Amino acid sequence: MDSVPAGSSHWNRGGRTRAGSGWIVAVGALALCACTLGPQYQRPTIPAPLVWKSAPEGTSAAWPSSGWWHGFSSRQLDQYIAQAQRANDDIAAAIARVREAKAQAQIVGAALQPAIAANASATRQRTLAADGNLSTHTVYSPQLSAAYELDFWGRNRAALDSAQATLAAGRYDRATVELTVLSAVASTYFEALALRARAGIARRNLADARQILDGLRLEQTAGTADALDVAQQETAVAALYASIPPLEQQLRQSVHALAILIGKTPESVELADATLEALSEPTVWPGLPSELLARRPDVAEAEARLIAANADIAQARAAFFPSIELTASRGFASEALSRALSPANAVFSLGAALTQPIFEGGALEGQAAYARARYTELLAGYHKAVIAALANVEDALVAVQQTGEEARRRKQAVAAARRAYEIAQAQLRAGTINVLTLLNTESALFAAEDAMAQVALSHFQALVALFNALGGGWRDAREG
Q1: Per the CB 3.0–4.6 Å rule, which of 18, 145, 403, 471 could disulfide with 295?
Q2: What is the pLDDT of residue 336?
């Protein structure tokens, strides 16, 4: 067996080992740089209250479902909601914005992949030969070229992270827009029903007032009622008659607003025979305040934009470091088209380019400062979105409770006013009271019934606001 000098063998093995370790250390160091150029994102800590201030003790959670509007048991509302989901212009625009963000993320992500291009050229040349004669020939050159930027500092990766976070924000914005639109459809529909009910109350009271006026005129003819009684009742009839046109105007405007929300022309929408009294009151109640943030798409959108801004900081920092681009091309060059792909005519090139920014007039420093300031701005926006979400729920809880209690009291007031009006009518016919007393009870009944319709509207709109404040059944997929 031939002997090998120990020193030589040791040097070869050790040299290879040290060289391999050197590459590993270098690559590891570059990877570490890529990880540390940008700040690691951490969700801001905003402590939520332990309980809802406006929630009574012992109330069990009943978070809204994705089809929360079905709880009102209105077939027409279900149809309007379905139509809005199909044809509302704001929802369609939000969907288009998501597609834009998805395409932008695809564009930005392409920088992490090599660019490959194929090209072919034919060049007609005239050259001076060694013998002094001019020669003319054509060079055919099909080639395949590739270029790739080494993302040592994570600049392209940070740009992709920012684009993907912006895409996520667009999806959350789409959910927010849809929830807002569907809540507006329900609220506007309830408003139209309430206005139609108020107009109906005014017409019924007008009919009763006219009936009393006709009786007084007969009594005036018989000499048992004077002109003042008739004039006072005529005033009441005129006031009731004048109250109807504004209600009709508001009703038509509400229907027109509803038409816009569902993507139809105003004249194509008419309300079916429905009333607020026929609606069901759905059960909805929030769980723990800490659970709310996973149920609000607007909060998730604010955080996604904060994540994008955090990635922009990393991208701005990486711009200070050199960029390295590798290029390669392989092809053929021949004066004869028939031999253009011959292996003997193969040509290739390899190249590497390093670009280090030296002086750009403060543009890089400005971009980094802008990215940091933008993050600070969006951090404040995220904080505002969180506390606003908590406040929305508290406001809606108060509104649901108080309008519900007011509705019960208004119902009692309407019953009392109707009894008083019926008694006054009987006493007027018996001649024991004058018409002024009847007018007072008549006005009180009309005001009580009109107020009852308005409170019923406020209560249903408060329920819609609570559904909206609780996120309408939406759940952030990141939270499981």
Answers
A1: 471
A2: 55
**33-113+153-320+363-479, CATH topology level:** Outer membrane efflux proteins (OEP) (1.20.1600)
Q: Which residues of 276-304 are buried (b: 16+ CB within 10 A; e: fewer)?
A: beebeebebbbbebeebbbbbbbbbbbbb
C-alpha neighbours within 13 Å on the C-beta side of residue 322: 8
Q: Are 281 and 68 in contact (CB under 8 A)?
A: no
Residue among 149, 197, 198, 173 nearest 298 (CA): 173
Query: For residue 53, what are its two tokens?
Result: 């201030």
Q: Are 88 and 181 in contact (CB under 8 A)?
A: yes
User: 22 is written with which tokens?
Assistant: 């050197």
CA torsion 90→92→94→99, rounded to 10°? -160
Residues shown for the chain: 480
Residue ranges of domains in the chain:
33-113+153-320+363-479, 114-150+322-355
Class for the domain spanning 114-150+322-355: mainly beta
* CA geometry: angle 115, 117, 123, nearest 5 deg: 145
Q: What is the pLDDT of residues 255-305, one digit of tens each?
A: 999 999 999 999 999 888 889 999 999 999 999 999 998 999 999 999 999
Distance separating alpha carbons of residues 454 and 281, to the nearest angstrom: 16
Q: What's the whole-model pTM score?
A: 0.83
Domain 33-113+153-320+363-479 identical in fold to domain 114-150+322-355: no
Closest CA to 442 of 231, 210, 194: 210
Q: What are the C-alpha distances in Å from 94 to residues 56, 184, 290, 325?
A: 38, 16, 28, 38
Name the nearest CA neighbour of 48 among 217, 287, 244.
Answer: 287
Q: Does residue 88 come out as left (phi exceeding 0), alpha (psi in the -120 to 50 range) or beta?
A: beta
H/E element holding 147? strand 134-150
Amino acid letter at 272?
A
Q: Are 178 and 94 in contact (CB under 8 A)?
A: yes
